[in-house]
Structure formats: C-alpha cells, structure tokens
Design brief:
The complex is a heterotrimer of chains A (282), B (266) and C (338). With 282 residues, chain A is α/β, with parallel strands linked by helices. Chain A has 9 helices and 12 strands. Helices cover 76% and strands 0% of the residues of chain C. The chains are: A alpha/beta (282), B alpha/beta (266), C mainly alpha (338).
C-alpha cells in the first residue's frame, strides 16, 4: 500500500541569520513514511526540527534538498490549495482577539475546496457543522472566539481542520495548554477520528506519554535528523531517550500495555526493585 | 495679458474682481458700478467693503461667483490659484488676468482696465495724476547719494523684493538702492546673513495690518553692527500701499522716500 | 440569512443612503438657491444658461460625485491596509502612504501644469509612485525584526509621513510666494468639481483599486489567522499581500491626485462598519465603498456650507472626526490584532 506521505532525504535550513542571532537550525537527511491510516508521533527536544517538519509537510517552506510526496505526488507540483485539501494543521494556538465567531472560523477550513468562490455554499456550511459536531462545539457556533476557554478553542481549531476534509491531520502540541481533563478528551477524540474516519494523524508533541499512548509509530528527531523510528516500545527506550534528551529517564509499562516514561528527578531515592538506567554507566 | 485671450462682445456690465489692486483701480477709474463682487481683502476704498464678497483670494466660492452672473472675472497669477481660472473657464465665465511688476506695467493695467470697463476717458487723467506725483517725489530725491536699502516684506522666513516686484522699482524711484534688486522672482526668500553681508544703511519693515511693528524691530536692533541699526534707520511702512498697484501706490512711494531721504522732505 | 443576501441588504441600504445624501447635497450651497430652483434644474425646466443650472449641474453635481468616489476609495484603502497589517489603526494617512502620494503629486505639479485628462493620469502615476515608495519604506522599517508589531508600524508610518511631508515642504519653499498659497491650500485636501472626462478617469482608477481588493475579501479573512495558518489553508500569502498593497496604494494615489491628501476616512469608516457588520471583509469592502462615499460627501457638504461663502477644506473636517477615533482605537485595541 502506498504510504500517504513520503519524506525522502530532506535537508533544510533557515536563511542566514543576522550577526547577533543564534545559529540557523537545519534538518538533515530526514527520510520516513507516513502510512495511510496510522497515527505517527513526532517527538524530540526543542529545536530538534519538529516544527520545521510541519512547515515542510505543508509547503510553508521548501526543502533545500530532497523531496516530499503526498499520495505519490511531489509536493512541489501541488498548488497550495490542492495541498490544503489533503493536509490540515491544528496549530498550537490561535492568534489573540480574533473577531470572528466559531462558525466563521470553522468555515475558513472550506476555503481550499473552492478557492475562487466568494461565499461558502450550503454544502460547505453542512461540512462545517459536521466538523463542529464531531468535536463537540456545535452548540458554540455563533459564539465569539474571544470568550472561549483553552479546551474549547482547541476543539474549534480542530473542527476547522476537519472541515478541510483532509486525509492527513497534523497536530502541533495539541495538549500543550490544556487542562488534564481536556487532554484526556483530546486523546479520545483523536482516536475516534482515526478509527471512524480513517484520518491519518501526525502528532507533534513534547509529551512522550501522550505519544506512547496514542501513536502506532513514533519518530524521534534529534539535532535535525532521525534518531529512531518505530513502535513506541522500540523508540521509547531508556538509553535512547537519555542520550537524546540528556537526562536520566525510567521507562516502564502503563496499564494499557504501552510504554510509560518517567523522569528521574535529582535527589529522589530509587523505588525498591527498580533499576534505574544511568547514561554514565554504559 | 499673459498670453490669454479674452473676447467680449461689449464692455462687461458685471465684473467680479479677485484682485484687491484691480478693485482699487476700478474705483479710481470711476467704474465701480460695474463691480458686482470682490474678495474679503478688497478693503480700499471703504466703499469696496460694501460690495458682495466671494471669499478669499486663494479659495473663493465658485458658487458665489457664478451666482453674481459676471460677464468677466478679473484675476491675477500673483495670489489666485490656477485651478480657480480653470473652473471658471469650464462654466463659461471669461477670466481676465492682470499682473504688474513695475510702474510701467501698472500704467498698462490701468489702460486695459479703462478699456475693459468702458471708461477710457478716465485713464489719462488718472495716469497723469499718478505720474506727476511720482515725478515730484523722484525729483525731490534726485541727485542725492543712494543709500543701500533692505526692504523686508516678511521677517520670518525673510522675504525680500526681487527683480519682478514693483517695490524694487519704487525703492529706486525713492532714491534708494535695494540690496536685493538683483534677486530673481517677485518676493524670494533671503538669508539674514546675506542681507547683513551687504551692509544695508536703511532697513524698511513692511507692516501688514499693524502687528509687525515692535516685534520685528527687535531682531534687527540686535544686529548692532549694521550701518542701518547704528544710525537708527530702521523704519516701518504700511505694506498695504506698497504691495498693491492701486492709486495709493504713490502714497507708498512717498512713505519710502521720506524714510530713505528724510532730509529731502523737511 | 445567507451571506449573499446579507450583503445585498447592506449594499441596498448604504446605496440608498448615499443617493439620499447626494440628493440633499444638491440643495445646499453658498449660492443659496431655493429648493424650487434646484428642482427646476433637475427636472429640466430651468433655462439653458441660467446660473441655477450652472451651479447645480456644473458645480455641485460634479463635486458631489467626486466626493463620493474619493470617500469610497479612501475607505476601501483603509480596509485593505487594515487587513494587510492585521491592525485596525492602519490607514493611508496614518501609514504615511498619503504623504508619499502627496509628494509625488506635488513633484508632478511642479514639473508641468495643465488640467486635462492626460495631466490627471500623470498626476495619478506620480502619486502612485510616491505611495508605493512610502508604503514600502514603512513595511521595511516595521518588519525589520520579523512580524509587524503595531507600535513599530505606527511609528514607522509617522516617520515616513513626516519625511515625505518635509520633502514636500522643501518643494513648496522653492516655489515663489504667489503659488505658495495654492499649494498650502491643496495640501489640506479639497474636493473640487471634477469635469466629466476626468471624473470618469477618477472613477475608473478607483474602480481598478477596488477590484484588486474586493476579489480577495475571502482570502483577507483567512489572512487574519496569521501568515503561516493562511498558507496552510491554501492562501498564497505573499501574492495576496502584494495585490492588496498595490490596490490600496492605487486608491490612495488616485484620491490624492484628484483631491489632495485627505486623512482618516480609511480609519473612521471601516471602524464604524466593523461595529455594525462584523469582521467579514466580504461585507466590509463593498460596504466601505458606499459608506466611505457617504461619509466624505457629508463632510464636504459641511465644508462648503458651514462658513459660506468661504469654504473649509474637507481634510480639516475629516481630521477633526478622525483624531478622536484614532485615540479611542489606540487605547482599546493596541494589544490585539484585527
């Protein structure tokens, strides 16, 4: 089965900085596939290249070397709106004080499907409502974005992404600002979307346990290149994580059977019977 | 005048004047009954103030002008806007331009206005009267050494009369030698330094409605090295009679002569 | 109510308002014509060369039409700049674009006179050049460190505006004293009765600017989400920004060429429209065309009647209205984008 997305030998760096800025970031020789219908997690330390990867996948920037393909077609040959029909992004945050209502925002997700139309059609409105219903914000359709709480905003933006009817959904730190309850809801929602609508999901996150729980495969990025790619159990092993993140971690099993990563806080006594991996001892 | 041709079937019965100088001349020619509209600045003779006003010189009201149904509008390129002439032309009102940068041009304007207002007979007496007075004043100061004169139209920025200003000729007729007579234009800007460098012996400050007297003097009095200041020869004159080319210009000329050659008028 | 129908209702209401204002303005003026006389002219009963006819048809009507076109153009330019910068305070005069256009037009005026249609094209072209340079300078200064932060944008606009105003002052100081009054008067912004051929050109240029912006209204909504999000939704942000900028600069330059620099229309009108209609640019842009026309028409009618027979410059009135609105917006909206 052809992968939904293929990233092949991609190199990228941001334009040369001004003298006082830090060194430019680069992605080097990144190669991986996104299989159709899977949930792929992308993890790694800050400035490992996770956000850059999203930008490359959505053609916000273009690789210096290498190629990215979507459904077999090179990204370079797709127009922006063709791409936006297949790939939707749920960004970390919405800009502050947008004057639109929830429904107006979600309807913007319909733009790529008819970019030349001036007004949305009744069909567009229906798709938008479906999306709002799927994420549980339909009752907020007329509400201004301003008054919404963090969890609700997240779901509204997700609805907008769903309104694009994408094959691939990319989420950038979806649980970063959410209360615990909404984090749990988010996971449930994403699982549901993946199973019921066969939406392929790429999830970029800091939260290793979220990735472990939710994802079929995990891509670990470090310093701009692929450190590991595989199932959560393969990737989330103590030695690898300790090396990439530069601190001691302990990995055991969560009740669901998935790996569970715990930090080893300095000065804490080890729990009886548990051996702690120390990067210096290998 | 000035290359614009105006054709009228007969002397106009209704004239609007946008030029205070022309207004004064029309009254002096005895043709004021043909004058149906003037500007806010047309304040001489006092009877002119009783005529209907169409606004200022820079932006008179087109509607007011049109409502007065003039046969011709008298305007100038020294104070009215070209846009005004263009707009009047568009609604079919002829515009007659006047311009006077010298005494000779002024006499020419008088002649033309006389013809325009159907009073050619009044031209010669008026011109004679003015010429006689000018000659008298010029005679009184002839033969005397010409002091260097600085005429200040406006102190800040410093504006002085240049080659094409009628005041320059008046200074010469009054027996003075204007230090800015060679400058191009009507009333160009001038730097105080350049003025000081020419060591004027008489400084004439123009009054525009009575407010520039004491204040302006201050600045010049501080330049104690100037011959004019040392000799106490900083004077103010009534600008309104010197910047217009109406019949009162001879009064202006006399003021200038008295200031430049006081000894000739004792 | 569907989008389309809402737009139609809004435009019908504004259009009716504009026509009513225009009709009322025909009856007002320093010539003090009786309503009967004006009606006689409008119904064709006045004699062919009567003053009433001249006043109503050759003076008032063209001036009313010019005011409506100018006001609409400025308001649409305002909406365009606001969408471009995601900032409700952006507007041609605030961003210095108006001053740049004025400089361009003054240069053109000093290089040669004339008031035919060809000369008007030349003035508009020079004005456009000035507007583009000013707008470009503001953009470069304000985006020097990434993004377009509101404070920097406003500062850059003020600075560029001052620069071009100074450059214009240099030019005016070179002009001899007789023409000075005229130029100073022009710089205040005035609507004058534009003859039919020039008026058609004026409307055509404004129409091009309007068309450049209105077609992008839906994309401008998406642009409000930020450039990255807009790209990810399929909007070519760079191309959109360039097009809006050209359209808004053209609108500004055209108005400056025909009426001098008039400020604040692009600030006041979109602000009020947003309060009533909401943030959707698909409603705002067409509505601004009509509402802007009505606003400037009202201001100009005031300008030519309140101290008759003298006239105020309409730019004076728009500034008096606009400055308080600007302060209000500055206080309430500084922290948030559009």
């Amino acid at each position: 089965m052809t992968p939904l997305a293929e990233v092949r030998g991609v190199h990228f760096s941001y334009p040369a900085p001004e003298r006082r800025r830090p060194a430019p970031f680069a992605l080097s020789d990144v190669t991986f596939d996104v299989a159709s219908g899977e949930i792929l997690g992308v993890i790694g330390p800050n400035s490992a290249g996770k956000t850059t990867l999203i930008r490359l996948l959505t053609k916000v920037v273009e690789p210096a070397r290498g190629e990215i393909r979507l459904g077999g077609r090179p990204l370079a040959r797709l127009t922006r709106w063709e791409l936006a029909r297949e790939v939707a992004v749920v960004p970390q945050e919405l800009p502050h004080a947008l004057p639109f209502s929830v429904e107006q925002l979600v309807l913007m997700g319909r733009y790529p499907h008819a970019p030349r139309r001036f007004f949305e059609t009744a069909g567009d409105v229906e798709v938008a409502r479906d999306a709002m219903a799927a994420t549980g914000v339909l009752h907020l359709a007329g509400a201004p974005l301003d008054g919404l709480g963090g969890g609700e905003r997240q779901r509204v933006v997700l609805a907008r992404a769903l309104a694009q009817e994408p094959r691939l959904l990319i989420l950038d730190e979806p649980t970063a600002h959410l209360d615990l309850r909404y984090q749990v809801e988010c996971v449930a929602l994403l699982r549901h979307l993946n199973r019921e609508r066969a939406t392929t999901i790429v999830l970029v996150s800091h939260d290793l346990n979220l990735a472990a729980e939710l994802c079929d495969r995990v891509l670990l990025l470090a310093d701009g290149s692929v450190a590991r790619l595989g199932s959560p159990a393969d990737v989330l092993d103590e030695a690898t994580l300790a090396r990439v993140y530069g601190c001691a971690v302990a990995v055991d099993r969560a009740p669901s059977g998935r790996p569970r990563v715990q930090l080893v806080w300095p000065g804490a006594a080890p729990r009886p019977g548990k051996e702690v991996a120390d990067p210096r001892s290998r | 005048m000035l290359g614009r041709e105006v054709r009228l079937a007969a002397p106009p019965d209704r004239i609007v004047s946008l030029v205070p100088s022309a207004t004064e001349l029309i009254f002096a020619l005895g043709a004021e009954e043909r004058l149906v509209g003037v500007t806010d600045f047309c304040d001489h003779p006092p009877a002119a103030r009783r005529k209907p006003s169409v606004g200022g010189m820079v932006s008179p009201s087109l509607e007011a002008i049109v409502t007065l149904r003039p046969d011709v509008v008298i305007a100038t390129d020294q104070g009215n806007r070209e846009e005004t002439f263009v707009q009047l032309g568009r609604v079919g009102i002829p515009v007659y331009l006047v311009h006077a940068g010298s005494v000779a041009m002024m006499m020419d304007v008088i002649g033309r206005l006389g013809a325009l207002t159907g009073r050619p007979g009044s031209v010669a007496p008026l011109v004679e009267r003015l010429r006689a007075r000018i000659a008298a004043i010029a005679g009184a100061v002839s033969g005397r050494r010409r002091p260097r004169v600085l005429y200040v139209l406006w102190p800040e920025p410093l504006l002085v009369p240049g080659r094409s200003a009628i005041v320059t000729e008046l200074i010469a007729l009054a027996g003075g030698d204007s230090i800015t007579a060679g400058e191009a234009g009507d009333y160009p800007r001038y730097s105080i330094e350049a003025a000081v460098a020419r060591a004027p012996e008489v400084i004439v400050l123009a009054r525009h409605g009575g407010t520039t007297g004491p204040i302006a003097r201050d600045r010049w009095d501080r330049l104690a090295n100037l011959p004019a200041v040392r000799a106490g020869r900083v004077h103010s004159v009534d600008g309104s009679v010197l910047h217009r080319y109406g019949p009162r210009i001879v009064d202006g000329l006399e003021q200038l002569a008295r200031v430049i050659h006081p000894e000739a008028f004792r | 109510m569907t989008h389309g129908r809402r737009l139609a209702v809004v435009l019908a209401a504004l259009g009716a308002g504009l026509l009513a204002l225009g009709a009322a303005a025909l009856f007002l003026g320093s010539a003090r014509l009786t309503p009967g006389a004006v009606l006689a002219v409008l119904t064709g009963h006045a004699p062919a060369d009567s003053t009433e006819r001249v006043v109503v048809l050759s003076l008032r009507l063209p001036r009313i039409a010019a005011a409506a076109v100018a006001g609409g153009a400025l308001a649409v330019a305002g909406v365009g700049f606001q969408a471009l910068t995601r900032n409700p305070l952006a507007e041609p005069s605030v961003l210095g674009v108006s001053s740049g256009a004025a400089f361009g037009v003054v240069v053109a005026q000093l290089l040669g006179g004339g008031s035919g249609v060809g000369d008007s094209v030349r003035l508009a072209l020079f004005g456009f050049g000035g507007a583009v340079v000013a707008g470009g300078a503001v953009y470069l200064i304000a985006s020097a460190h990434g993004g377009l932060p509101i404070q920097t944008l406003l500062l850059a606009g003020v600075i560029v505006g001052i620069f071009f105003a100074s450059a214009t002052t240099v030019l005016t100081s070179l002009v001899d004293i007789d023409r000075l009054g005229g130029i100073v008067h022009w710089l205040l912004g005035n609507v004058s009765p534009v003859p039919p051929a020039s008026l058609a050109l004026f409307a055509a240029l404004a129409g091009v600017g309007f068309w450049l912006i209105v077609g992008q209204a839906r994309r401008l909504n998406v642009l409000a989400l930020g450039e990255e999000a807009a790209l990810q939704l399929g909007v070519s942000a760079e191309r959109l920004k360039a097009r809006i900028f050209v359209g808004a600069a053209l609108l500004t330059a055209t108005v400056v060429a025909f009426a001098g620099p008039i400020g604040f229309v692009g600030l006041v009108v979109p602000h009020v429209l947003r309060l009533v209609l909401g943030p959707d640019n698909r409603l705002l842009v067409p509505a601004a065309l009509l509402a802007g026309g009505a606003f400037l028409l009202a201001a100009d009618t005031l300008a030519r009647n309140v101290v008759a027979p003298a006239e105020l410059s309409v730019g004076v009135i728009t500034s008096f209205c606009g400055a308080p609105v600007f302060v209000y917006l500055l206080r309430t909206r500084t922290r948030s984008p559009l």
